[in-house]
Amino acid sequence: MGFNCFIKFLLFFSSLFVSTIELGVAISSSYIFIDIMSSESEEQQLSKKAAKKEAAKQEKLRRRQEAAALASAASSLSVEEDDPYSSNYGDVSLPELKSCSQTDAGQWSLAISSMEWTPVGALTQDLKEKEVLIRGRVHITRPVSKNMSFVVVREKGFTVQCLVTTQGEGVSSQMVKFVAGLNRESIIDAIGVVSVPGNPIKGTTQQVEIHLRKLYCVNKALPTLPINVDDAARSDAEIEAALLSGDKLPRVNQDTRLNFRVLDIRTPSNQGIFRIQCQVGTIFRQFLLSEGFVEIHTPKLIAGSSEGGSAVFKLDYKGQPACLAQSPQLHKQMAICGDFGRVFEIGPVFRAEDSYTHRHLCEFTGLDVEMEIKKHYSEVMDIVDRLFVTMFDGMNERCQKELEAIGRQYPFEPLKYKPKTLRLTFEEGVQMLKDAGVEVDPLGDLNTEAERKLGQLVLEKYDTEFYILHRYPLAVRPFYTMPCYDNALYSNSFDVFIRGEEIISGAQRVHVPEFLAERAQACGIDVNTISTYIDSFRYGVPPHGGFGVGLERVVMLFCALGNIRKTSLFPRDPQRIAP
Amino acid sequence: MGFNCFIKFLLFFSSLFVSTIELGVAISSSYIFIDIMSSESEEQQLSKKAAKKEAAKQEKLRRRQEAAALASAASSLSVEEDDPYSSNYGDVSLPELKSCSQTDAGQWSLAISSMEWTPVGALTQDLKEKEVLIRGRVHITRPVSKNMSFVVVREKGFTVQCLVTTQGEGVSSQMVKFVAGLNRESIIDAIGVVSVPGNPIKGTTQQVEIHLRKLYCVNKALPTLPINVDDAARSDAEIEAALLSGDKLPRVNQDTRLNFRVLDIRTPSNQGIFRIQCQVGTIFRQFLLSEGFVEIHTPKLIAGSSEGGSAVFKLDYKGQPACLAQSPQLHKQMAICGDFGRVFEIGPVFRAEDSYTHRHLCEFTGLDVEMEIKKHYSEVMDIVDRLFVTMFDGMNERCQKELEAIGRQYPFEPLKYKPKTLRLTFEEGVQMLKDAGVEVDPLGDLNTEAERKLGQLVLEKYDTEFYILHRYPLAVRPFYTMPCYDNALYSNSFDVFIRGEEIISGAQRVHVPEFLAERAQACGIDVNTISTYIDSFRYGVPPHGGFGVGLERVVMLFCALGNIRKTSLFPRDPQRIAP
């Protein structure tokens, strides 16, 4: 019954993304998606024909494996009445899942009642001979015979091999059949004894084996999934190595991943990416709170258009024209006018730009900071410097497992950075480029290519992939940027780069209303359209400055992931607004 | 020149909010706003006529005071050339503010170069005889004579009295004139020596006095402000006490406050409110991170309509119909489907409802939680219980100064709560109401009045203002709520109350797709319209539940503030989308 709906789901997505994905060959009970629209970093695009051929081969292989499993598990998966051990396995009923602690409890409730769950990631050799209860997903079943089967259980990216055999206590051949016949990705509760095998276990993260005594299926997945988690978790290197020995393994393309994101984010690398993202936010906050910053929440619904320049999402607000904030710029500056001294915000930022690149999204998570300046805009750069070094140190310390998990699928070199961040002026940067034979406009902006090149030169000369470039030409910054003291062609502003890509933009703001109006006019802006902004500064305001960072870019560049869609949980770009 | 713009600003706001505010009498150099549209908690609405009369009287008083100050300060405020101490005061020039550390530094740069700023809130008697540098605002000046003046300096809600007198070292009568003539709310850097007066100082938070040696104006405010911070900071009790002795003090109404929010948020109570709001977010995160939750960021731009039911803000997304998320419900559940186990999000939530009440906003900050359930939905209530007790404890411990500042303007009793939160079933609640003579539908929802009454009964019987009411009737909860095990008329759901108002709504979700479709149908929902939601659960999903809280409501109810606009930095309601 679910299958019709499932097909509808597929059709729904295929109609939404028909321009970017190709559904490819979907034969009977399995699938294969062809890598038509791969990201920049993915190589080796196969022709459709060759891919179809490979897909058919793969399909045959998978069907053979399934047939073997089914033969062992026989036709019916239900618990047989005449099994004296029937209470040790089976499907958990919905009433039980509503409240397992009722008096008329079922077998599952009784079995788990006096036990605590051990996380799969915590299953170590220290637990040898101990009985444990785990909850996880059926990653894969490997039936061996009527009387024996393996099942790999996965929880939050960690995997453990479980063995069910009729030689075990309380295990019937019916139970083996039940376990071997479980659908991939189903949720199970398993009770068993931890054993330490003589040889290392290949293909699981945990180096112990669970000898099962009881296993209950808490929730069944569909027998066929649009993508398999182990296909989605495979590295390019594995695929290429297999190809050398004649095996064509499925490669799941970026759009297919995003269409079935609830499956894709189950891979160890994705589990790592979003746990690291959480850590970036946590360290960002902890550091700023410790420096006396206050976290604020500014409105995303703005009257009129928030800044001009890039495109905004417009909407009707109870009959008034409104738009979604492109940045919290105005409101974080108002918070400074309102005596909060130092503020930060973590929240969504909306850009209706038509940029379909590896580094742009229509909605992303902005990390925004604004602060009083006592003497000099270098105070803002000092915060950037210490904040990011703290963040990088923290990620390397706290997220080792996550970084390893990402590296297994997407190998990358650790970011090179210094305890005290390198600062170059824009003029120095231009000179470095010139010395290397790259001519750029000394009062223009750097294009992506020049930024990359400069990143490379800085790495060679200073051995760092993280640096600040400041004193940008005034002409390439927004009108509210404070010009330099000694040369009005330059400004009290900076960009910050990771691995040759811009990640932060910051500056001292013009806080004197008369001068702000003058600067707006000089930039060709009608002062009347921004009068509320200018007027905010008429009631007394300290000199101030700030900066903004995209959370997704931090994670993307720290891990050298090459596509920002990989670091957004449910990305939005000009072609995608679902799921 | 700035004044025209300022008038334009006033006119801009008056045209925007003409329906809710009355600009009242704005005579020459001062203003008075009449309290026409006060919030529920504000009493004593005066007639326009009486108010105008009072305003005129007030205006006279203020002009008299100003005249006295100006007489003392004389006409010109500029630094006079023939003053041997002219380097000890004056306006800081814009070039200096761009970079005070240049070689050709001005007097201000030289004066502050070797000093660190002391926060006003840190000025205690321990610093007696020490020379300090402070940055703050001119809260008020009190000229005494040509040779002496007081100036109260305010920073982040803390105030200190400063004395400038020609008897002091390096102080000329010109400097006294300069200080006495400073506009309110201007930003100054002041250097002076801490002294401890014999008698307590009235009207300032700090019990020391600074004897000024140098004072520089970093940024000038307009001579006349739309609201004065001390008017905005006054409690009802002060206004009423003054009235008894024949003084009519200005009362700034809620809409005027919001129109000039950058001035309003400078009051000590508002400084407290938003610092407490920051703490609520911080404790919420710290607690959940320590319990293994992962912070996520879900999209606010959603294809179609996010949930149905209440009104949504619609927009065009690159040619596709889209809307703003009314809650992260779907995506936080998808994160559970995606193996994150326990997740939370802090982010904006959008509701296009036409509710113009003390507790509804069109945009607010949602604190959302979703988690796997192992055995029973009480696990979710356990998290709510410990989370909120930790939060309340934390606020009481960490925010004493802030709570006191709020209490001075808006007196309130500390929240009564228990270390282990009271849990009542809906049936028990209905019975308590019945016993008190209030008849309610035992299978319907409680209206606001019944909730208030029950809060009162619970307080009397259990001595707590914070409790959980669970097992709500199934019929009054969304279709995705899990019915109770033993009685399908009820559900595995709960609401949480603070001071008789609902603050949290939570439940176990239906995670079985077939049953979810059945429940949707039973609730009259076309299953086809929610197929993507239902299909998310077809790839295996653990039992799970969660809850949502509004950050602004937590602060409002903890501090009994009576109007949610007081706890939103820049609130959005059906009549307000600015500033």
Automatic annotation (TrEMBL), chains A, B:
It catalyses: tRNA(Asp) + L-aspartate + ATP = L-aspartyl-tRNA(Asp) + AMP + diphosphate. The keyword Ribosomal protein does not apply. One of its GO terms (molecular function) is RNA binding. Its EC number is 6.1.1.12. Residues 39-68 form a coiled coil. It is found in: Cytoplasm. One of its GO terms (biological process) is aspartyl-tRNA aminoacylation. Residues 274-571 form the Aminoacyl-transfer RNA synthetases class-II family profile domain. It is an enzyme of class 6 (ligase). GO terms for cellular component: aminoacyl-tRNA synthetase multienzyme complex; cytosol. It holds the Pfam family tRNA-synt_2. Keywords: Aminoacyl-tRNA synthetase, ATP-binding, Coiled coil, Cytoplasm, Ligase, Nucleotide-binding, Protein biosynthesis. Belongs to the class-II aminoacyl-tRNA synthetase family. Type 2 subfamily. NCBIfam families: aspS_nondisc, PRK05159.1. This is aspartate--tRNA ligase. It comes from Hibiscus syriacus.
